[in-house]
Amino acid sequence: MPESAAIRVESLNVVRSETAVLRDVSFVVPAGQLLGLLGPSGSGKTTLMRALLGLQIVASGDTEILGDRAGAVALRNRVGYVSQSPAVYGDLTVMENLRYFASILDVARDDVDRVLADVDLERYARSLVSRLSGGERARVSLAIALLGAPELLILDEPTVGLDPVLRRDLWTLFARQASAGTTLLVSSHVMDEAARCERLLLLREGQILADLTPAELLERTRTSSYDAAFVALIEGST
After folding, report:
1. pTM here?
2. What is the 3-state secondary structure (H, E, C) of 53-82?
């Protein structure tokens, strides 16, 4: 894998209950890139992310993360992950959740204040997580993933259920992280978020339908919206 590559996936296949979930998926992500993984529900986005984290049994293929095999112990402090369901403790406050995970990661205490500010949760620091809205709990999960400034962030639908202003603010944060050298792989089924990414992987039925920039997507499909572009790609592939 080239030194500048954060992710390399080669001929990845995942089979579940005799059904192919991922089929011959290959791609390389350079360090510091903001990559959007887009596709409808059931296209294989979450399965691909689980494979990158070493959490998914694969039938065949090779996956390397930051120069190491996916799931290697050495990657635990170098990769941040946010799942679709917030992985937080409801009976603890926001601050207590962050301090707990910071202690596990052996992260400096002042890093908790940094991530609280990054996700705009400072005013909820002493609130029980169980009393927060779904969007607020999702931001707590994101704050935990940001602890320690990981080199790679894998974010599964991080903006689902959030209001437009907060979605905009989080994408601004993602772009800032990428500018600082962090590699981000962000999944979404909301096609208008494609414009906020440097590069797009469009997944459908476990296969990569397209690998291109947002501008190239619109140019290739001769459309003016990303929803229309994805439909055009699907119709063209069938």
Report:
1. 0.91
2. CCCCCCCEEEEEECCEECCCHHHCCCEEEE
d(CA 77, CA 79): 6
| Side chain identity at residue 3, one-letter code | E
pLDDT surpassing 90 at residue 162: no
Type of residue numbered 130: S
Label residues 209-232 b or e (16+ Cβ within 10 Å = b).
bbeeebeebbeebebeebeebbeb
Contact 120, 172 (CB under 8 A): no
Q: What pLDDT score was predicted for residue 3?
A: 53
Phi, psi torsion values for 183, nearest 5 degrees: -90, 135
At residue 162, the 3 state secondary structure works out as coil
Q: Which residues contact residue 215 at a Cβ distance below 8 angstroms, ignoring those fewer than 6 apart?
A: none
Dist CA 199 CA 23 (whole Å): 21
CA-angle at 142, arms to 22 and 197, nearest 5°: 60
CA distance 47 to 14: 8
φ, ψ of residue 187 in degrees (nearest 5): -95, 150
Q: What is the crossing angle of helices 134-146 and 164-179, to 10°?
A: 10
User: Nearest CA to 27 among 182, 202, 214, 158?
Assistant: 202
Q: Residues 111-140: pLDDT tens digits?
A: 999 999 999 899 999 999 999 988 889 889
**Any idea what DSSP says for residue 17?**
T
Strands 34-38 and 199-204: parallel
